[in-house]
């Protein structure tokens, strides 16, 4: 595996960049990342990424099975091999942007995914509660996100110690040729955890957590404490 930090060169020609992807689509970041793997355009997605802005500069963190091949006239890329060595009882700090969902069955017995924040609101009949009786929204987001993450980490060999949950963002993206927009939400998590079983947890680092990975969700970043 490879982990890369990728930035657009500050002197990149906007017209040249526009030719790299379908400029009429908001599916851009996914297309941009795919451009870093030109040798096998028909391969299935084998990478996770996260987009973020620091000091006004856009950057992408990328975890991939293949080493990215970037056009040096457009990208600044720093890549290194990624082989985490973990042990039971190890404590790690982490960051995660995820699309947290739960699966519910409807009256007909059909299962579908639901945004955990919308689901939490539904469970307490948020829309019909008087405003004075509604829980503080950041508290609802914190509690729903913490519960969701703790359950999923436990399934993959880790215990959640502490976490801050914020940045709830419903999003809509348009893919060329699709009749309907693709909708999803994201939450940002930052905290500490303890590794209980290194093998499944390492696999989680490689494969990511939750859906919407094509939209920059799922990459779990960790560092030693």
From TrEMBL:
Domain of life: Bacteria
InterPro entries: CRISPR-assoc_prot_Cse3 (IPR010179)
SUPFAM superfamilies: CRISPR-associated protein
Pfam (any one): CRISPR_assoc
Residue ranges of coiled coil: none
Protein name per Swiss-Prot or TrEMBL: CRISPR-associated protein Cse3
Annotated organism of origin: endosymbiont of Riftia pachyptila (vent Ph05)
Gene name of this polypeptide: cse3
């Amino acid at each position: 595996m490879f982990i890369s930090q990728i930035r657009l060169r500050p002197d990149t020609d906007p017209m040249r960049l526009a030719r790299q992807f379908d400029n009429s689509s908001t599916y851009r970041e996914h297309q941009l990342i795919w451009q870093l793997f030109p040798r096998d355009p028909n391969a299935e997605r084998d990478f996770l990424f996260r987009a973020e802005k620091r000091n006004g500069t856009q950057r992408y963190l990328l975890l991939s099975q293949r080493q990215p091949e970037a056009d040096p006239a457009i990208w600044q890329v720093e890549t290194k091999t990624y082989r985490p060595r973990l042990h039971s009882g190890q404590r790690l700090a982490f960051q995660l942007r995820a699309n947290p969902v739960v699966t519910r069955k409807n009256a007909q017995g059909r299962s579908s995914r639901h945004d955990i924040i919308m689901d939490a609101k539904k469970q307490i009949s948020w829309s019909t509660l008087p405003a004075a009786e509604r829980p503080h929204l950041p508290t609802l987001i914190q509690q729903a996100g913490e519960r969701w993450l703790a359950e999923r980490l436990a399934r993959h060999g880790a215990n959640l110690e502490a976490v801050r949950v914020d940045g709830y963002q419903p999003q809509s993206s348009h893919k060329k040729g699709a009749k309907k927009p693709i909708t999803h939400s994201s939450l940002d998590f930052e905290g500490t955890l303890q590794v209980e079983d290194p093998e499944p947890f390492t696999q989680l680092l490689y494969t990511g957590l939750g859906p919407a990975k094509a939209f920059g969700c799922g990459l779990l970043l960790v560092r030693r404490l």
